[in-house]
Amino acid sequence: MQSPPRTIAYCTLAVLIALYVVGAVSSGSLRHEVQTLPLWFPIVMGFRGKEIAKWSALPCLVFWLGIIVLIWLFLLGWARIVTGHYSPVEIAMTLVIGAACVTGLITAIRWRTTVAPLKALGVVVLFAILQVAAFRISLIPYIAVH
Question: pLDDT grade, residue 142 (50/70/90)?
């Protein structure tokens, strides 16, 4: 069984790689590179065995799981919050991202750290802001098409 920090690192790395694959087969890899910038911190910290990996990964995993759920609601015809055309590769990557997010979130919930509550909250808020900002920046027309 993997240690929690390494599991978090592998899960966030899986999300990052799957998003890079989506970028490679869709309209622009720069968009996905920008979107994944916040994931690098929990990847590095997780592989270094640092407890802060949990708190930095949590908002990123929740964000990407939310996006995946919205995509699947569209694919199933249940909601049109997120729309678009999804290739078979992109659909497969949603499954990879979803599985990695669920695994990472379960690991994070079960993992008890010694990080002070205020510090943990600060890191969660910071990475929630960073993830939303990275996603928003990735929608700038120049970035979105390159």
Answer: confident
